[in-house]
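Q: Convert this sequence to structure tokens.
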Amino acid sequence: MANTGKPAWPQTPDGTTDWEVVFEDPQSGFIQLVAQSPSADTLRLTATVVIDKLFTRRGDEVEVARLKNELELILGIPSEISVMQTGVSGLLRQIKETRIEKARVYIERKRSGAAIDRRSGWLWKIDVLLKPKVLLPLGLVFILFISGLVYALLQSTMGGYVRPAPVAEAPAVTPEATPEASAETASKTPPEATPPSQSASQPPSAQPDAASPEGPPTITPPPPVKPVRILLKTMRWPLSSQSATKRAQYYAVVINVANWDDKVEVCRWVPNVMDRLYQAFDRVLPQDRNAQDAELVELQRILPNILNQIFKAPLVSQVDVLRYGDPRFKTATKPPYCTSPDKAQ
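A:
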């Protein structure tokens, strides 16, 4: 592997490294070097050189150790060399997606006039804090703090107030009763009228009939919930054509999930999702000819179970694999290459 310095790497019009070309170039890309490695030892050496070349800054030691551990896990499982190549390619594509995202954030901040120190790295951490998964808990903590502060202030201002006890009224004083006064009062008081008793023959008043109970309410079933579709980056298969006349085909993968929260969770794992997709392609689709419809149906059948192993939950309900030329063919064209046409991003 040639020791090409970073200044010689291709650049985008924005002045950042074109990581797509660095990794995916058919002649000199890192993924192509992996595809040409004939043995596990050559794969280990190639991937180790790539990792050491990409992570040279102070503080990258932890990330380098993590990536090399993942590399050993991939190569430590006895399998065919093509399966190992696919696993190592997926690991390198995780690095590629991370570098593309950092370059995008850098360009956006540069255009907005923000001062950027790419070596310090603290501005990248601010971008992580602006994600909804982080902002929502922070906002909830802030609201709870303000509520507690207001409650404490109200308690401190109203704690000394004591409601006065009601004053009991003195009983009215009446003159002492005498025999003469009692007789006079009795003569002036008319006898009370005795209410006429109800005749035994008179029938009791009719009671109103109780309201007849109504029938059970009609329950209208809720309308079916439309799944959320997720578009990923265009997939090329096979990665390296073994025939001089047979060209690789391009596929669009559309993932269906139940709601928007599941879509966000899937996009957090998009490098791992792409890795599992390429492993499934290698397992089902042939490399020496175009895939048949039955093979695509089998691939779509096994993909939900394979992808749900990443999330440890049944988030993915259906996966559609569409060949280029299909009217439904549509892919994500911008980083992070995980978009949904059903809802604005």
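Strands lie at 228-232, 235-237, 249-257, 316-323, 338-339.
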